[in-house]
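S.,

As promised, the 6-phosphogluconic acid run. Input:
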Amino acid sequence: MAEIRVFASQSALNFALAEAVASTINSAVRAHKKCSIALAGGTTPKRLYKLLATDFKKHVRWRHVYVFWGDERLVAPGSAQRNDRMAREMLLTHVPCPERHIHPMATRAKQSPEDAAREYEATMRQHFVDGRPRFDLVLLGLGAEGHTASLFPDSPALDERERWVCPVQVPVTPSQRLTLTLPVFSQAANVFFLAMGSAKARALRSAISSDADPKKCPAAAIKLVDGRVTWWADAPAAGSNKDQDIHKGAVEETEHDPIVPIQPQGANFDDSEVSNADEKGQTTDHPRDEQR
Ligand code: 6PG
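Predicted complex:
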């Protein structure tokens, strides 16, 4: 069951979202001594990352966090267009997450997309030793036409059922990218979609509709085997005042089954909780899992 949290302002949304991210990280560390997170790229998460780098950082168990990315643009390492550079500048250089826990994609210049994808999958398989790529938290953005990570409408990568990482050619620049695949996303314990601004309203509406076509709206293809999808939207993205249903919170599960990787192994199912920021974004001053 997906849940939608709609906030009147982006600042209220980002504050509640930062608290939920902190709470989810700390719950995962409490449950199994580490938190595996996949970060989103683009511009929407920037304010969240900056917020997490403020006082929040004292209350998050960053030393136990392992950072991956949902996708990356295949441009020169260090390029301003890279998602890992943005996350480092906004967040990772400001928190005590050990460098050896941070796993950027495609860090070698002149490496072929195919080799970069295989290398990243090998890195992931060294981390997810039971063969099940179960992130405790995946952050995902939403494109105006429904793409998420670098899974774009009608992309062949949407049909991938075995590989965890695919090279893709996308219809926006930079066009050459790597993306995690549906068999990975479907294993997540928590997926937080971030959707802000009226430009995302149409995509959000189709992503949550029960008859969404996952080929045309890849965000609708993100179905979890055993996890929770939460949409974090501001009023313009939620099409405020146009459809009261969207403000009710829960939305009906659609009939699409989760895309399960071949031979998933083992299962340390744990239900990490997310915080309970209310709809107005009223939350405590600090994440509930405050570490003294
Ligand atoms: C990327 C992201 C991409 C992004 C959406 C939304 O590499 O750009 O992975 O999926 O999340 O395109 O982008 P904005 O947040 O900039 O609107």
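The domain at 2-247 is CATH 3.40.50.1360 (Rossmann fold). The chain has one domain: 2-247.

- D.
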